[in-house]
Here is the input.
Amino acid sequence: MTNPQLDEVIERCRALIQQRFPEQEAGAAAMLLSDGTILVGTAPEAINPAVEVCHETEPYCAAHRLEQKIVASICLYRDEAGAYLVLAPCGVCQERLATHGPDVLAAVPGSDSTPVRWVPLKALMPHYWATAFDDAPLEWSSSVVTS
Ligand SMILES: [Zn+2]
Here is the structure.
């Protein structure tokens, strides 16, 4: 995977926010699939916020429909000042991404000069619960932190 692909994932996520929500605070997600496809998505608000879903849900489900492995995922939120905040995947999204293995790249906040930093999911989940079981996915079993 090349950095231009990851840059395109970031750009497609920003573009969705700009196109769909030109005048308001809003979020969106984008994912890079193993075949090079980039999927984007966003989530509706609900009357009861308890039933809302993460922006990652739409591209996550579409990747399943397309039978493609997710290799990178980003969620961005444009605040009222117009700044794009990088939202690391929440615990639920980490759990969903875990089905695609410990090497899925997740966007996390970077520095001022590089606002997006890509880290493997295993860096966010160094003690993944499923590795306690003998039948844990092999790719996760080999990612266990031993110290
Ligand atoms: Zn989430």
Remarks:
- The longest helix spans residues 3-20.
- Residues 3-141 form a domain with the Cytidine Deaminase; domain 2 fold (CATH 3.40.140.10).
- The mean pLDDT is 94.
